[in-house]
Each structure stands twice: as C-alpha cells, then as structure tokens.
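We close this part of the discussion by returning to an individual protein. In the encoding step, the backbone of a single protein was reduced to a row of integers, each denoting a local shape. The sequence in question and its structure tokens are set out directly beneath this paragraph.
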Amino acid sequence: MFNPTVAMWLLLGSFVVFILLRMPVIFAIAVSSCITLFYVNIPLMSFIQQMGKGVDSFSLMAIPFFILAGEIMGAGGISDRLLQAANVIVGRFRGGLSYVNVLASMFFGHLSGSAVADVSSLGSIEIPMMEKGGYDKDFSVAVTVASSCQGVLIPPSHNMIIYSVAAGGVSVGALFMAGLVPGVMLGILMLILCAVISIIRHYPKGEAISFKEACKIIVSAVLALFTAVIILVGVTAGLFTATESAAIACIYAFIISVFVYKELKFSLMPKLLMNTIKTLAMVFSLIAAANAFGWLLAFLKVPTLITEGLLAITTNKIVLLLLINLMLLVLGCIMDMAPLILIVTPILIPVISTLGMSKVQFGVMLIFNLAVGLCTPPVGSALFVGCGVGRINIERTVKAMLPFYGIMVAGLLLVTFVPEISLFLPRILGFQI
C-alpha cells in the first residue's frame, strides 16, 4: 500500500529536479512518471496506453497543417509582402518602422501562429532595417521579440488547439475567436508604447510611398492575408472544421507562394517538410507524455489538492486570479509553452470552475501568460532567437524590454478581469462558452 502524499511529492519533486538539471521536458516527464509508477505499483503499460490516448484526437490533426503552412509562408515571400503592407499603412509616421514591426508581426503571427517563426523570418529583415533607419539596436530587437507574442493569441494558433485537447474538448472555433480581440488589443498597446518611446528618443519619420505603389503593395499582400480569411470564415461559419481549414490554408499558401509570388521553389519542399516533421515530432511527443503525466496527477488527486490549497489561502476571486497569473508567469519563465499548457490545464481547470470562469476565457488567459514567457529569460525561445538574429546580448535586450513587459502584464490583467474582451466575439457568433 502506497502513501498518496509521498507519491505526489515523488512525482512533482523529481520532475522539478530533472527540469533544474536541464533534462529535456519530455524525458523529465517520462522519468519522473516511471519512478512514481514503480512506487505506487501501477504497470508501466498503463502509462504507455495513456500516452497513446493523448495523441488520439481528430483536433490534433490540424497542427501539422498549420506548422507546414507557416513554413511555406515563411519561405514563399509572404512575410516580405506583409512587411511592405505594414510600411504602407504606418511607415510614414515618427517612429514608423517600430509601428511597421508591430503591425507586420500582427499580420504574420496571424498566419503562422508561431512567435519563433515570426522573429526568425521577420526579424532578419526588420532589425537591420530599423538600425539603418536610426533606431537603437536594443529597441529594435525588443520590439521584434515583444510583438511576436501576438501570434500565439491571434488565430489560427496551434497552441489553442493543444489547450482545447488538454481542457477536455473546448471548441477550437470559440478559442480562435476569443483570442482575436486580446491579440489585437496587445498590438495596439505596443503601438502606443512605441509612439511614446519614439517621441522621447526623437526617432525619424519614414518616407511616404506613392499612391500607385501603395495600391500595388496592398493588393499583393491581400492575397497572403486571404489565408487567414479562409480559416476564420470557414471555422466560424461552420463550413469546415479547424483541421479541414488548416489543410485548405496549407494548400492555398502553397499555390500563392509557388504560382503567384513564384518565390517558393519545389526544391525547397523537402527541407520545409523535414522542418515540419521535426517540429511535429517534438509537439506530439510532448502531448503524449504530458497526457500520461496528467493522468497520473489526476490519479493522485493533485488537481483537487491544489484547488483546496488555493481556496484555503483565500476565497477572494481577485486574489486567486492574481495568484494563478503570478504562478503561470513564473512557470513561463522556466518552461516552454506547449508542455506547460498540457501540464497546468488539467490542474487549474477545477480551480477556475470553482471561480465561475469560462474555460474559453481561461484558455486565452493561459495562452497570454505563457506568451509573456516566450520573451522572458531564462528559457524564452522568442527572446533567444531575437538576440541571435540581432546579434545582441540577452541582458541588454531584457533591459530594453522592461516597458514591453509592463504593457503585456497590463493587457493580461485586462483579459483576466474583463471577461467580455475575450468572450464578446465567441458569444455574438453563437459559440458555447
């Protein structure tokens, strides 16, 4: 007979130790789970079966298509056209290139759903362009990294699909629509901050573009943005599922990149497919391992204990939500987004249900929290990629990002305490929230 308390601390304690030892998350999950299984005398095959159940979901089939679509768009000239379109809209104002950076990230993140893809594809163009235009390097990198976080909120986001599965089948369409307004709101807050900094530092104005050239650029970019229209209209109108929309968007992006823009060569496809497979292997392995880990947590009644523990501290809804946000922000600093979604969702769902919060709103709050983690040390992937592309040390970049952290936390608090920001669109479109 095993002691449940000992088993719980054995599972969580060994997991934390392995993470601190910099063991890959998948192996940290698997090894800590196996140690606990031996202690509680559960057959290892049960763990393997739960891993299989974790990836046995139709919704997850959308992820490979979204990843491939992002790879195609990054290599097919779409990012360049979105950057030019953003320059047409806001480039002529003081600090215009910083606005271009934020707006281009909003457009591209809207299509790729990946902060890292945003930084790596757009950052290599934006950062040198801003430096050449008279902007400080640390500010250029900070804007690029911070603005990339919009991509995980604005649909389509494969992280929303992962949350949907982890939360027990929340509507993907509702989550997509719920993330749209907060994502755009975050972009507007960053535009305001860029305007203030640009005025204080006397950054230059951009050059005006002729009407004829502007029309040409906008028309070219509209074809790229139509990828998002296919997904959003198709899913919200019920024409097809998120998985079907991802496949159609992937085909559309391929046609536009190869036959219209003519920048994607067939010879590049094996490389793009290999990149997709590598990313997919990592994501699905995490989903499988985390599902089994979550099953073991539920078996040991960890979610119930955490719910009771938090409610024992206080029953004040505001304080509890602040504690949850603080915990997620800290976890986001030390772990990547996908495994955190899979691990904390089944633990915190009972807590937010007690508080009367919608799973849809919590999903946006969770993704928003972890988006901040993408650009914070020590493991922020978007931060590391941005520093690599900009060839600048992390310490200098983090210092320049402090105002952006403040803006992101302000946006997070709005999403947390004003439900209509995330629930307005899903509600008027008739989704169950």
The CA atoms of residues 51 and 289 lie 6 Å apart. The radius of gyration is 22 Å.
